[in-house]
Structures are given as structure tokens and as C-alpha cells.
Amino acid sequence: xxxxxxxxxxxxxxxxxxxxxxxxxxxxxxxxxYMIPKLSDVFVSxxxxxxxxxxxxxxxxxxxxxxxxxxxxxxxxxxxWIESSSLAKKTIYPLIIASQTVPIIALSPIMVMWxxxxxxxxxxxxxxFSFFPLAVNTADGFRTADEGIGELMRTMGAGRRDLxxxxxxxxxxxxFFTGLKMAATISVGGATLGEWLGGESxxxxxxxxxxxxxxxxxxxxxxxxxxxxGILMFLFASLLEAIVLARRxxxx
Length: 252
Prior knowledge:
The chain is mainly alpha-helical. The chain has a domain at 44-141 and 175-251: MetI-like (MetI-like fold, Orthogonal Bundle), CATH 1.10.3720.10. The protein has helices spanning 2-28, 39-48, 50-84, 86-98, 104-115, 119-143, 147-155, 160-198, 203-212, 216-251.
């Protein structure tokens, strides 16, 4: 615990320095509050609107988690299909890569047209954001499996199922969790974008309304909470990675 606290100390000191610079610069330069408000005003706004922010925070978190769960399932299935089929490797994998040339923000209004203004349009946008890193990193993880281990297992009579569960799948776990950490972080951005384009609640909608009213402190309070949400999602994915990989290494 002490080691972790010491490793986190430089980051905390940097954050305190940035906070002090923010507060001092906005006061000394007399920057208008609707452009960059004082950090203290942001925290005051956050406290004054805490009940409303908690409600919107929960909405955005729900959208992010549901979309991330769908992305985990779809991305993992796509990676397994690519690994198990040479045809899929030659066709589906390049299509997944090519799909990233299409700006996701251009597809987001289509999701709103298809699914309306309810939660599922936001979930669809989250999937658009988070599917790619999960599918690609997991597929790459399958390819990093040590061929020597595979050959040894085959000579010992291992079948296709054993090869997948005891060789390919454990080898793909680091790649999967790399994709999961990336997807967990950017899922918050996907939910926010979905709310901007067609939402009635959530932190994205909260910041959009505050921006229209030139309430800079409210906008920044929503942005800070979105950042906190992304960090929490990343930390949860990292914790899950540590637990699963520790158990895998323990079995070894």
C-alpha cells in the first residue's frame, strides 16, 4: 500500500500544481467565466447541483457500461471467428480495420434515426467507439500464442477444444485486457457524443445545455465528472486484468 501511495504521489502533486495554476491564471488574467471559469467556481457549481449531477452521472454511466458489455461480447466473438477461420481472417479482419476510416461522429446520427432518442441510440454509439479496440487487440492476442506450446500440446494428443481453451485463450488475455482498458475509457466519450446528438439526460446533455446558457462553471463541472468516470472505468478494467492474470499465472 505504501509503495502504491509513493508511486501516486508525483501524479497528485502535478494535479495540485495544475489546479493552483488554473485558479491563479483565471484570476490574474481576468478570463471571462463563460470561457474558463475559476476552478473554485467549478467546485461550487458541482456542489450546488450535486443532486442533478448525480442523476446525469448515473445515466451516462449506465449507457457506457451497457455499450461496453455488448462490445466485449461482440468484439470477443469477432476475434474468435477471425482466429478460427482463415476466410474470416482474410475478409472480416480487413473490414474491421477499414471501418475506422469512416468517422464515427458521421454514423452517430444514423444510430439516432434507427434507435430513437432512448438509451439504445447511445448504447449503439458506445459500441461504435469501443468494439474496434476489443476486436483487434483480442485478435492480435490470439496471434501471439507461442507456436512451440501448440505443437507440444498436439503431440500430446490435445484436441481443438483443448488447444483453444488451454493455449490460445490464455495467450490472448493480455491483448483482450489492453483492448478492454482502451474501450472502457473511450466508451464514456461515445455515450457523451450520443447524448449531444439526441439525448434528454446524461452528462453530455447537461454540458450541452450549460454551454448554450454560457454557464462555463457548469460545463467544466460536467467535463470533470466525465473525466472521473473514464478514469474509474479504466481502473476497474485494470483491476479485473490484475485479478484474472494473477489467477492464470497462479495456475501455471
